[in-house]
Amino acid sequence: MQTIEKILSVENISKKYISETNTVVALKNVSFDLFAGEMLSVMGTSGSGKSTLLHVLGALDAPDGGVIRLKGVIQDNIFNEPAASVYRSNTVGFVFQNYNLLKDLTVEENIALPLILQGMEHSVRVKEMLETVGLMKWKKHRPIQLSGGQQQRVAIARALITTPPIVLADEPTGNLDYNTSIEILKFLTLAKDKMKQSIILVTHDPMVAAYADRVLFFHDGEIVDNYACSPFENNTNRIIDKFKSLLEKK
Ligand SMILES: Nc1ncnc2c1ncn2[C@@H]1O[C@H](COP(=O)(O)OP(=O)(O)OP(=O)(O)O)[C@@H](O)[C@H]1O
């Protein structure tokens, strides 16, 4: 029997934000595994720690405690430079709600950026990515000349160009209409099915969450429930029910 590779193990991650006036516990002993070619959605109440989780997994923010393993190996140095930059450029691709494109660069330059920063040849890969996301005709345009959906396609191409094993997407469809959201989800699904990339997708939208293989529900910094999507269920309705019961317990 073929075993599915465990890409990421998150073990008892905790994170507090401490200011002069108060302390916010953003993550409390969060543990889960992520497998190769798996899409995991993260849903939860506002302020439940979803973005903090992505920041920690992307080595943008250090946790106070806990362990992250990549393919079984403890990553104890990824929150310090230069290891943080190496981890971010080799291991994770980011997709944000607001696209985060560089406004002075063209579409093709934005897409090429991760390879340029690594000093690698990029022209063949950029062409492939432009074709994948259907933006060949727009390659010389700047972000301001594109629709929101087109900008997000550029951001996805940029996140995927180095084929990182893990893609972290924070509300990638949050600013997009239904049809454009489906288009963006199809690109992420292609990355997981074709390239066996693993995706963690934070969303407020149950329809978007239903594209994943599994959904984790967060409340007050903790995983309080989970749901495995099934080809035989109306996953969107099941996710709505789970989320409603989470709100009722609050
Ligand atoms: N830089 C920060 N400094 C202080 N507190 C923070 C910081 N970032 C987040 N928090 C707090 O940590 C908690 C978790 O925030 P986080 O942004 O991770 O939640 P979220 O689930 O992504 O929320 P939302 O769905 O509203 O975007 C919140 O109470 C938030 O106010």
Automatic annotation (TrEMBL):
SUPFAM superfamilies: P-loop containing nucleoside triphosphate hydrolases (SSF52540). GO terms for cellular component: membrane protein complex; plasma membrane. InterPro entries: AAA+_ATPase (IPR003593), ABC_transporter-like_ATP-bd (IPR003439), ABC_transporter-like_CS (IPR017871), ABC_transpr_LolD-like (IPR015854), MacB-like_ATP-bd (IPR017911), P-loop_NTPase (IPR027417). The keyword ATP-binding applies. Residues 8-245 form the ABC transporter domain. Pfam families: ABC_tran. Signal peptide: none annotated. Keywords: ATP-binding, Nucleotide-binding, Transport. GO terms for molecular function: ATP binding; ATP hydrolysis activity; transmembrane transporter activity. This is ABC transporter ATP-binding protein.
